[in-house]
Amino acid sequence: MNDTSERLSCRAWCLAGAAFCLMMMAVALILQYVFELEPCPLCIFQRVAVLTALIVFVIGALHNPKRGGGGVYGVLALLGSLGGAIVAGRHVWLQHLPPDQVPSCGPGLDYMLEVLPLWNVMSQVLSGSGECAEIHGMWLGLSLPMWTLMGFIVLSFIPIGLIVRSLRAA
Question: Which CATH class is domain 2-98+133-169?
Fold first, then answer.
């Protein structure tokens, strides 16, 4: 990673990250609108994490800071990626609970957003519900949240590369 991380500009790293985020969102939207798999509340939060990283990457690509400035974008994008990985990990964990330990289904996300403060909504969604524990799709023997978790892990390498590049340039 030594030569590659130093040769690529901040813009190149950010464009790679943005492209990966766009690919993740495209897959999510295809699954929703083509295959009619409605996202559960945890899936929605995973999308928010992807969009957060995407916004950081786009701003970083537009700004294209010189020397060590790209590290800031790397840290912010890494926070989005790790946040998404945590939510996806929680989702995978819920799907592997024995049926008698799965939390009961609560009200829908739209309703909660209308009547509860945002912090309470986040707390309830992250505690999980029965609908998040259901496995609606498998591909190559892995559930969709497992694939999403792997996507976030791969995505995390891009901001890490940006941070390493930034530290070496400083």
Answer: mainly alpha
> 130 pLDDT exceeds 60?
no
Q: Tell me the per-residue pLDDT of 147-167, one tens digit each, with 9 for 90 and over.
A: 999 999 999 999 999 999 888
Cβ-based neighbours of 18, under 8 Å, separated by 6 or more: 54, 57, 58, 61
Q: How far apart are CA 75 and CA 57, in angstroms?
A: 11
φ, ψ of residue 94 in degrees (nearest 5)? -60, -40
CB 158 within 8 A of CB 16: yes
Residue spans of beta strands (DSSP E) within the chain:
138-139, 142-143
Q: How far is CA 121 from the centre of its chain?
A: 18
What pLDDT does residue 5 have?
A: 47
